[in-house]
Amino acid sequence: MTAHRLRTIGVRTLQASGALLVAGLMAGCGQAAPAGQAISAPLPQSQPEPPSAVVDQNLPAEQPGTPTTENSAAPPPEAPKPKTDEVTRCHTSMLTGSLQNPDAGAGQRYAELTLTNSSGETCTLYGYGGMQLVDASGRPLPTDAKRTPNPGPSMITLSPGESASATLHWTAVPHEGEPTDGPCAPTAASLQVIPPDETDPLPVTWNGGPVCGFGKIDGTAYHQ
What we know:
Layout: H1 3-28, E1 88-89, E2 95-105, E3 108-117, E4 123-125, E5 130-134, E6 144-147, E7 156-158, E8 163-171, E9 190-194, E10 202-205, H2 212-215, E11 216-219
Parallel strand pairs: 1-4, 6-11
Antiparallel strand pairs: 2-3, 3-8, 4-7, 5-9, 8-11, 9-10
Signal peptide: 1-32
Keywords: Signal
Domain DUF4232: 90-218
C-alpha cells in the first residue's frame, strides 16, 4: 500500500472518530446528528435579564393606610331618641298653700297640708318638704318635723289649678317637761312650708292650735 493511500485512510479515520464523538454528545442532549453532516457543539445561550423596575421620581410615595375588606361596613345609625315634653319642678313661686281638714280626737290632731299649682304651666312634685312653725312676728317656734313612710315619695304632675297634699299629725297632749296648767306651747300663727327640693319658704296660715311634744309634727310625702 502506498504512502499516499495510508495518509488518506488516516485522515478519514480521524474524521470518523470526531463525528462519532460529536454524535455521542448530541445523543446525550437528546439531539440526533443528521447523517453526512458535520456537527459542531452548540454555544451556551445567555439568559435574558429581567427588566428593571422604573420608578417615577415625580410620583408621591405610597402612604400606608388601614386595610379595608369587602366585609367591612359602617356602624348602623343610632335610633332617634323619642322626644319628651320637659316639665319643670314646682318652684315655691308657682304654689299656694293651705292647711285643710283639721281633725281632732283623743288629743291627736291631723290635717292636710295642701299645695296648689297657681301658675300657668304644668310642674311636678316629688318627695317630702320642710316646715317651720313661726309666731305672728315671724319668730321661729319649736318645730321637730319627722317623715313618715306611708305614703312614700311618688312623682306627681300638677297641671295649673291641681293640688297635692302631705298628711300631718301632731299631738295636743303635753309631754314631760312641758306646761300642764295651760297651753303646752305657744300657738303658731303660720307654718313656713318649703316644697320638695326648694329653699324658699311658702307661708301657710296655721289653724291647728298648739303643737305639744316640743313641736313634733309627723308628715308624709306629697300625694294626690
